């Protein structure tokens, strides 16, 4: 189970970095008054109203929750290995 949690953590980390990278790229273009280069939807000019921004927010929330789960999984794993006695 811990392998799945670690894989989820890595995937969400990559997705979070990718989403924020796209948003920052769009934000820089917007500040420099350039056209949207990554594919803004319709005529939306403000990058805070694009799917990139909302995706970055949700990826960040998911990543934080995954980090909490991973931390608890690791701390419970070390506690269980110390007190690992079989009841017969």
From TrEMBL:
Entry keyword annotation includes Transmembrane helix: yes
Top-rank taxon of the source lineage equals: Bacteria
Q: Where are the transmembrane segments?
A: 7-28, 48-70
- Name the keywords, alphabetized: Membrane, Transmembrane, Transmembrane helix
Q: What is this protein called?
A: Vitamin K epoxide reductase domain-containing protein
Q: Which organism is it from?
A: Candidatus Portnoybacteria bacterium RBG_13_40_8
The organism's lineage?
Answer: Bacteria, Candidatus Portnoyibacteriota
């Amino acid at each position: 189970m811990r392998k799945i949690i670690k894989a989820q953590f890595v995937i969400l980390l990559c997705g979070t970095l990718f989403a924020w990278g796209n948003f920052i790229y769009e934000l820089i273009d917007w500040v420099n008054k350039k056209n949207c280069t990554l594919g803004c939807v319709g005529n939306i000019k403000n990058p805070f109203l694009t799917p990139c921004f909302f995706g970055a927010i949700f990826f960040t929330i998911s990543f934080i929750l995954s980090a909490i789960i991973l931390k608890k999984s690791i701390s419970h794993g070390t506690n269980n290995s110390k007190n690992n006695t079989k009841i017969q």
